[in-house]
Amino acid sequence: MPKIKFKKNILLKNHTTFKIGGPAKYFLTAKTKEELIEAIEFASQKKLLFFILGGGSNVLVSDEGYDGLVIKVKSQRGPYGVSSRAAKVKNSEIYAEAGVKLDDLVKLTAKNNLTGLEWAAGIPGTIGGALYGNAAAFEGSMSDIVEEVECIEPPKIRIFKNKDCQLSYKDSIFKKNKNLIILSCTLQLKPGNKKEIKQKIKYFLDYREKNHPLKFPSAGSIFKNPRNISAGELIEKCGLKRKKKGGAMISEKHANFIVNLKEAQAKDVLSLINLIKKEVKKKFNVELEEEIQYLKT
Ligand SMILES: Cc1cc2nc3c(=O)[nH]c(=O)nc-3n(C[C@H](O)[C@H](O)[C@H](O)COP(=O)(O)OP(=O)(O)OC[C@H]3O[C@@H](n4cnc5c(N)ncnc54)[C@H](O)[C@@H]3O)c2cc1C
Predict the structure, then answer these.
(1) How sure is the predictor about 139, in pLDDT bands with cuts at 50, 70 and 90?
(2) How far apart are CA 74 and CA 129, in angstroms?
(3) What domains appear along the chain, each with residue ranges and CATH number?
């Protein structure tokens, strides 16, 4: 019998930025690294099918949900954002547990006059999710600043130095090896000027506000950019902006975003994804590859 308390039949649409997804059979939130280790060890001992969810900002969950255990990694926050237990600053280094929000870390770095993470302002989700997909924007990426990553590969705890993480465009060793669960990381930043750091953050946030469809639920960019071509431009040139299926629509503001206009289902999004792939292949002979991760049983 579980010594850990699970919830049952939890709707995953309430845990994704797309606001899409059916129920998870079992669900629990790990608020600390220790709770995460306990949950992973439990799931692997019991041979339970499990999935790690961070902020749910890069996933499309099926309408049928997930017939296993979803472990949501979400660090506790303090009154001023990230708690001092979950993230610590030492000189130019920042330690953070996997469930710390990336945006909270951006604020923490600015507070401590550290530069190197401004590009991440406005990216939703956790630092664990950001490492998994080597999150990147504008001039920066996780690969530029990761010192080391602490993982559990049940039952072993392992430390990966930057070069061992195999971070490349939207890829990492954590994506290739699903047995590796990220517990925490250390980032190496540089001393900077608070005013300049804040100006950069504001610039990136303003850019997102202007160019991304932030008013509607989405999972960010659906596709990777193939060989430095903008996937959004290819989709736009196929005349697919504003194309709708059910409650889902290819965004008018940015064609690589599919937005949930109203109660969209995963099947609506999938239908648009297939349409985009077909049209882009036909017009440009380019095979688009999803950046988003799928969660289905
Ligand atoms: C409006 C918007 C804008 C965005 N802009 C950007 C952008 O500019 N650049 C960019 O790179 N991305 C962007 N994204 C996508 C997304 O925010 C990032 O990929 C983010 O880093 C995902 O983190 P998450 O915690 O939400 O991961 P989730 O969506 O919860 O999970 C994504 C994957 O990571 C795995 N994972 C999560 N945590 C762990 C862990 N601790 N250990 C092992 N695996 C784990 C999950 O199993 C899943 O496969 C955007 C998304 C939105 C909605």
Answers:
(1) confident
(2) 11
(3) 7-73 (3.30.43.10), 77-211 (3.30.465.10), 226-295 (3.90.78.10)
Ligand 1 centroid, distance to 129 Cα (angstroms)? 4
> What pLDDT shows up at residue 3?
62
118-133 average pLDDT score: 98
198 residue type, one letter? K
* 79 preceded by a cis bond (ω within 30 of 0): no
Could you give the 3-state DSSP secondary structure of residue 107?
Answer: helix
For ligand 1, residues with CB inside 6 Å are 17, 51-59, 73, 98, 123-126, 128-130, 132-133, 135-137, 174, 181-182, 212, 214, 218-220, 293
The model's pLDDT over 214-234, given as tens digits with 9 standing for 90+, comes to 999 999 999 999 988 999 999
* Integer CA distances (angstroms), 9 to 6, 61, 64, 74, 288, in order: 10, 14, 11, 19, 34
Confidence of residue 1 (pLDDT cuts 50, 70, 90): very low
Q: From the CA of 1, how far away is ligand 1's center (Å)?
A: 32
Give the residue, by CA position, lying nearest to ligand 1 atom 6: 123
Cβ(73)–Cβ(99) under 8 Å?
yes
pLDDT score for 4: 76
Q: How far apart are CA 259 and CA 250, in angstroms?
A: 6
**How many angstroms is it from 220 CA to the middle of ligand 1?**
9
**pTM summary value:** 0.97
Pairing outcome for strands 156-161 and 146-153? antiparallel
- Residue with the nearest Cα to atom 43 of ligand 1? 181
Contact between residue 79 and residue 288 where contact means Cβ atoms under 8 Å apart = no
222 CA to centre of ligand 1 in angstroms:
12
Residue nearest to atom 36 of ligand 1 (CA): 129
